[in-house]
């Protein structure tokens, strides 16, 4: 698709457009800003020209938004996130500016199909999953509800890897999203900040010989340079800034070394700088990977803080007023080192005493926790942290001393004090980044009601006793502009025809659709939209994988990061059990079903990669077995990303949200599926709990242990072998996998993965299997009554308005950031 899309035989003369029209602007941009005429323009050329024409209008709103904020003298939000999974921006920006159809018509008059060139826009691989996509939704919603904000992150050259499946195995390849440049970003080389690593700390004294502070003298230095992307709110009301940092060496080449013949050594500094922003989440299973991860986190946090302070001091006399003018928000623990960095800047560069600096820091920062898994809260070996950031290590110790004194004064016991310490003493001594983020923030929020309650009971229970008013809930949301208006235009049009346009500006008005769930005519139209979306997905699967699917089958979809707690394995095992039942009982009225999987496993996560292999092995056998008669297919679609999600979410009949209860913080895929008319099968975990309250018990299928029951089972002794032996279907399915039915070439392939379930079953797959299988048969029963299924699907769409990120951001703005929205 990157070649010429307008062959000369179709256009012997370059297309013309009336002067002053949008088509004329696109032609001029093509010639003067891309350097091509229409006869030789490629698809990427037309894409860039179209973006630049709309971008010019965005810039006008962008500058106006910045000037309004400056004149108002109000508070700004600074959102620090290691991930921003923004996906393709063209439709998002064009639609929010109200120009999508206008550009479509202009391009059509020139013989260019907007949908064709839109597919050429790279899917920016700047995130891994829910955390990064949430950050992207939040940025769009902040602009929509008129919150002045900057997002700060890293401009990864490759970002997360591109996933290919070779012989059923995940293979990681570089994602070259910048191969054709990025027409959305603006190079801000004047916004460059020096970032240091390593070195020594020198204590300073005044003329009386008294201590007067410290000076950090880094051994290594790089420059962080800014690239800005405008983030357009709905109807172009506000345009905010996503500022991503790129690393460049201060000394790109050591000429003496190069001229002496040491060509590799001469480029050492350049290579080290480039490695900082090369990929997202380098494998941290080894020391070098851990060090690079910490370097990345400090690099973007330090650059962002210098930028924030520089902007603040350009408007105000000193940093005393920083908490009143800046709300800095930490999206998970990745930017937690910013707490120590702000303290360093206040203490060493701006002369504050410790107490005053600590007060400013805590009133400025807020922290969102996204996980209850202790291992995901991030911690760094003391020797790694101190070697890279020696001054910050001193500051962490100083903060810790103050924190532990306060805890002791408030009556916490030794065990509680060990738990809240910033230094973990269990085994290797480590700096606990979650504890640092908590201690350094005035607000700590969870992302669903259940998650927030569990935070208070588990990972931060002792902090909650010390600071009982800091933890609060902000249930996640999604932007309906991306996840309904853009990815499902046919459904959006149907809703507009049915209830009018008010929901497009006030998504909670979507509930007016609820009364049409009993309207047979509307349900038929609703079902026709779903069918068209399923046909689109079948075409994608056919083109990418050569697999033909029946769009009249139930489309059962689980797409998300591959992790054992998300329990793709439970889903696959149930597919094996269903496969066995279909073959054993051909006389039954089986519902045709396609089980879709998609997602990436961390490169060093052995079991997650083995689950991908198992999904592909099971699919290979089932999909080619004539005894199944096409009633069941299992499909793992490679390289799941935002663009693929935009095809899969509208096509789903059934949304799999089956994590072990108490382990999923919120989920946002669950919201996207339901908004597009899918029923959810899930545990009472994360935001599923609140979704159940909103969509109604009859319109969601719940199974399995609750979070409290999972805790009790683990506390009182859970015997997975007994659970397996008491479930004939589960026992048969596991035996089939273990015996090599799906791995004839290597019968022992899944001995570790499946055999482990008999011994520990950490994620309760065996405990929940029978309940899950029964729930799936309830789904079959519901599916057989198509009118009733569609009624329930309409209720899901109509009742999801509350789960908008606009609502979430308004809550952040009013209850954490103290800014109007």
From TrEMBL:
Reaction catalysis annotation: [(1->4)-alpha-D-glucosyl](n) + phosphate = [(1->4)-alpha-D-glucosyl](n-1) + alpha-D-glucose 1-phosphate
The protein's Enzyme Commission number: 2.4.1.1
Residues the record lists as N6-(pyridoxal phosphate)lysine modifications: 672
Any Pfam family hit: Phosphorylase
Superkingdom of the source species: Bacteria
A GO BP entry: glycogen catabolic process
InterPro entries assigned: Glycg_phsphrylas (IPR011833), Glyco_trans_35 (IPR000811), Pyridoxal_P_attach_site (IPR035090)
Cofactor dependency: pyridoxal 5'-phosphate
Recorded family membership: Belongs to the glycogen phosphorylase family.
Name recorded for this polypeptide: Alpha-1,4 glucan phosphorylase
Organism, scientific name: Tianweitania populi
């Amino acid at each position: 698709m990157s070649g010429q899309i307008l062959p000369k035989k179709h256009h012997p003369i370059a297309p013309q457009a009336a002067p002053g029209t949008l088509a004329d602007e696109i032609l001029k941009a093509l010639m003067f800003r891309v350097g091509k005429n229409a006869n030789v323009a490629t698809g990427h050329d037309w894409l860039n020209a179209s973006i630049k024409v709309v971008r010019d209008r965005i810039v006008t709103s962008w500058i106006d938004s910045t000037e309004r904020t400056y004149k108002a003298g109000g508070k700004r939000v600074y959102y620090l996130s290691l991930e921003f999974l923004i996906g393709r921006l063209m439709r998002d920006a064009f639609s929010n500016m109200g120009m999508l159809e206008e550009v479509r018509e202009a391009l059509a008059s020139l013989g260019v199909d907007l949908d064709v060139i839109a597919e050429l826009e790279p899917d920016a691989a700047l995130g891994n999953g829910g955390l990064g996509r949430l950050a992207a939704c939040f940025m769009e919603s902040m602009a929509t509800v008129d919150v002045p904000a900057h997002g700060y992150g890293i401009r990864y050259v490759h970002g997360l890897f591109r996933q290919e499946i070779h012989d059923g195995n995940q293979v990681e390849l570089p994602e070259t999203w910048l191969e054709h440049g990025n027409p959305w970003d603006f190079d801000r080389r004047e916004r460059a900040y020096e970032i240091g690593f390593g070195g020594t700390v020198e204590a300073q004294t005044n003329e009386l010989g008294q201590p007067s502070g410290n000076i950090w003298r880094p051994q290594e230095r790089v420059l962080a340079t800014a690239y800005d992307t405008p983030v357009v709110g709905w109807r172009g009301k506000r345009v905010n800034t996503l500022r991503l940092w790129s690393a460049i060496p201060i000394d790109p080449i050591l000429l003496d070394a190069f001229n002496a013949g040491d060509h590799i050594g001469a480029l050492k500094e350049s290579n080290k700088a480039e490695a900082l922003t090369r990929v997202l989440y380098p494998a941290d299973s080894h020391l070098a990977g851990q060090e690079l991860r910490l370097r990345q986190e400090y690099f973007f946090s330090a650059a962002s803080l210098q930028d924030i302070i520089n902007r603040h001091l350009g408007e105000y006399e000193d940093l005393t007023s920083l908490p009143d003018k800046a709300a800095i928000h930490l999206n998970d623990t990745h930017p937690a080192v910013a707490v120590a960095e702000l303290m360093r800047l206040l203490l060493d560069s701006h002369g504050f005493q410790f107490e005053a600096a600590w007060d400013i820091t805590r009133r400025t920062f807020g922290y969102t926790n996204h996980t209850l898994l202790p291992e995901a809260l991030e911690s760094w070996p003391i020797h790694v942290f101190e070697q890279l950031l020696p001054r910050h290590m001193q500051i962490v110790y100083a903060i810790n001393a103050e924190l532990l004194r306060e805890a002791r004064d408030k009556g916490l016991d030794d065990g509680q004090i060990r738990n809240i310490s910033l230094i973990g003493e269990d085994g290797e001594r480590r700096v606990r980044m979650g504890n640092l983020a908590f201690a350094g923030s005035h607000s700590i929020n969870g992302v669903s009601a259940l998650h927030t309650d569990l935070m208070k009971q588990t990972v931060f229970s002792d902090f909650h006793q010390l600071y009982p008013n800091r933890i609060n809930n902000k249930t996640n949301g999604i932007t309906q502009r991306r996840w309904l208006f853009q990815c499902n235009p046919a459904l959006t049009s149907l809703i507009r025809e049915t209830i009018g346009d008010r929901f497009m500006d006030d998504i909670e008005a979507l509930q007016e659709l609820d009364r049409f769930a009993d309207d047979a005519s509307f349900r038929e139209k609703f079902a026709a939209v779903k069918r068209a979306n399923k046909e689109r997905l079948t075409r994608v699967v056919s083109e990418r994988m050569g697999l033909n699917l029946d769009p009249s089958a139930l489309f059962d979809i689980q797409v998300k990061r591959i992790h054992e707690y998300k329990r793709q394995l439970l889903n696959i095992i149930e597919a094996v059990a269903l496969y066995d039942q279909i073959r054993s009982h051909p006389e039954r009225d089986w519902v045709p079903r396609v089980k879709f999987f998609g997602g990436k496993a961390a490169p060093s996560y052995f079991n997650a990669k083995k689950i991908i292999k198992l999904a592909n092995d099971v699919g290979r056998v089932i999909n080619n077995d004539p005894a199944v008669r096409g009633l069941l297919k299992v499909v793992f679609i490679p390289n799941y990303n935002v663009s693929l999600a935009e095809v899969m979410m509208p096509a789903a009949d059934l949304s799999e949200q089956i994590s072990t209860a108490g382990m999923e913080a919120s989920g946002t895929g669950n919201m996207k599926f339901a908004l597009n008319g899918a029923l959810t099968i899930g545990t009472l975990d994360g935001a599923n709990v609140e979704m159940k309250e909103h969509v109604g018990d009859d319109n969601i299928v719940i199974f399995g242990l609750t979070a409290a029951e999972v805790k009790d089972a683990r506390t009182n002794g859970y015997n997975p072998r007994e659970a397996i032996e008491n479930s004939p279907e589960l026992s048969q399915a596991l035996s089939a996998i273990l015996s090599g039915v799906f791995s004839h070439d290597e019968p022992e392939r899944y001995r570790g993965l499946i055999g482990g379930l008999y011994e520990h079953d950490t994620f309760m797959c065996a405990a929940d299997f029978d309940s899950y299988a029964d729930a799936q048969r309830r789904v079959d029963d519901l599916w057989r009554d198509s009118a009733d299924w569609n009624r329930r699907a309409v209720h899901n769409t109509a009742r999801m308005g509350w789960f908008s990120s606009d609502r979430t951001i308004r809550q952040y703005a009013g209850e954490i950031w103290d800014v109007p929205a």
